[in-house]
Design goal:
This protein is of the alpha/beta class. The chain contains eleven helices and 21 strands. About 35% of the residues lie in helices and about 20% in strands. The longest helix has 27 residues. The N and C termini lie far apart (about 80 Å).
Length: about 425
């Protein structure tokens, strides 16, 4: 199996390098090629996806992906395996209890439906899996071959039967609270996890070189290695991941050993430094912390521009995007100010200004368009000279008397103007 795997890796290496070149070109242009969001199994019920009929599931799934697109995202990481289970009819594991009562089989295929709606709105869909977790306290033993075989079998099942754009693992590897693993050395942990990661990567590439495989490890590199996530190898050698999403879930007002620390900036620098293979890197951002008073991380209440400031830092370097945790926090009151600033940051405006001359007493409707549908109705209007012309809340200009004035459409700090002449 090992020989076959390495032969396959050599065969796909060139294709992987070519994909990486294209992604890195985008990064050099200063663009964030991936703007993602996680949809967690713990939010199925609030999203109307748990214990519902197929028609209701479809309606709510459509709303979900419409809103994801309306918030400026282009990629979704959707929980399909949370506790050694599945949100689709699987021959490897049972049904997710988060999706159906008691893990009862459903008469429809939720995974097929959510993929369809994601693609309907032009979103890339990555199947998010917890590779080892069985319960909150129990995991599949990473040191056993049958564990890797089980994980690979489920990955194969997904990529063979569904049009996913990628397979995505999160940060759960060796547990820190199970007695049976405490004597397993750090080196052995990383060796066992690496074998699984290599086999998953090879399996994904055997199906299609275009399919992506990525991992979202914890933001603390030392902790990653402690639990078996050999991130330095993944970011320095081929054959492990197509992208990585470190969860840098801190502000720059973190209290470490009694002193204020720019922990987000420091951890971002550390991740950039170990990325010697220039693997596409998207940063996991803690939207879920916004607005909460946290003793060790008070930055989330000191400012409502944490996410905006982090986006600015992400753009300045070898990081090509971000992923928000989690979708539900885009609509939670605790994060409302942070979200407003985030949306203002990523929104662009355009203004249709074809008709620039009006006769006194006439009206003309200007049309301003926001790149994000969520904020379209939040666009505001202003006339620089109301004596010459006024403008209503919906952009209707009314010419008053001879002269010139500028009409502004704006949202946040984004502004567009149109000069109107009244004759």
């Amino acid at each position: 199996m090992i020989v076959k795997r390495w032969m396959l890796m050599l065969a796909v290496m060139l294709a992987a390098l070519l994909v990486g070149v294209n992604q890195k070109t985008d990064a050099k242009a200063g663009s964030l090629s991936t703007r993602g969001v996680w949809v967690s199994c713990f939010d199925y019920e609030d999203l109307g996806l748990s214990n519902v009929s197929e028609s209701e599931f479809r309606k709510n799934a459509n709303t979900l992906f419409y809103r994801i697109k309306a918030n400026g995202c282009n990629t979704v990481y959707f929980h399909v395996r949370s506790y050694d289970d599945a949100i689709y009819p699987s021959e490897v594991v049972g049904w997710s209890k988060k999706l159906s009562k008691g893990g009862k089989a459903l008469s429809y295929d939720p995974l097929e439906i959510v993929i369809t709606y994601a693609h309907k709105y032009g979103l890339k869909f990555h199947a998010w899996m917890n590779p080892y977790r069985v319960t909150k306290k129990k995991v599949l033993d990473p040191g056993k071959e049958k564990t890797t075989e089980r994980i690979v079998a489920q990955v194969s099942e997904i990529i063979e039967n569904y049009k996913v754009d990628g397979i995505h693992f999160d940060d759960y590897f060796y547990p820190t609270n199970e007695k049976k693993y405490k004597k397993v050395s750090r080196a052995t942990r990383m060796k066992n996890v690496n074998q699984m990661v290599e086999e998953v990567y090879a399996t994904v590439k055997e199906k299609s070189k275009k399919l992506q495989f990525g991992i979202s490890p914890a933001g603390n590199i030392d902790y990653c290695k402690k639990i078996g996530a050999d991130v330095e190898t993944w970011l320095s050698e081929d054959g492990y991941v197509d992208y990585i999403v470190p969860q840098i879930y801190w502000s720059d007002n973190y209290i470490l050993e009694g002193e204020k620390t720019k922990l987000f900036t420091e951890r971002l620098k550390e991740w950039r430094e170990i990325n010697v293979n220039d693997v596409p890197m998207y940063i996991g951002l803690a939207l879920y912390k916004a607005g909460y008073r946290l003793k060790e991380d008070p930055g989330w209440t000191k400012t409502s521009k944490n996410i905006v400031n982090q986006l600015n830092k992400i753009k300045n370097g070898n990081t090509e995007g971000y992923v928000l945790f989690a979708y539900v926090d885009l609509y939670q009151s605790h994060a409302s100010k942070e979200v407003k600033n985030y949306l203002a940051k990523i929104t662009t405006l355009s203004l249709n200004c074809s008709k620039k001359t009006l006769r006194a007493g006439k009206t003309y409707r200007l049309k301003a368009t926001a790149s994000l549908k969520r904020v379209q109705n939040a666009i505001k209007w202003k006339s620089a000279n109301r004596k010459v012309a006024t403008v209503s809340k919906n952009g209707t200009v009314k010419a008053k008397k001879k002269g010139k004035t500028k009409i502004y459409a704006y949202y946040g700090s984004k502004k567009k103007s149109c000069q109107i002449r009244v004759k």
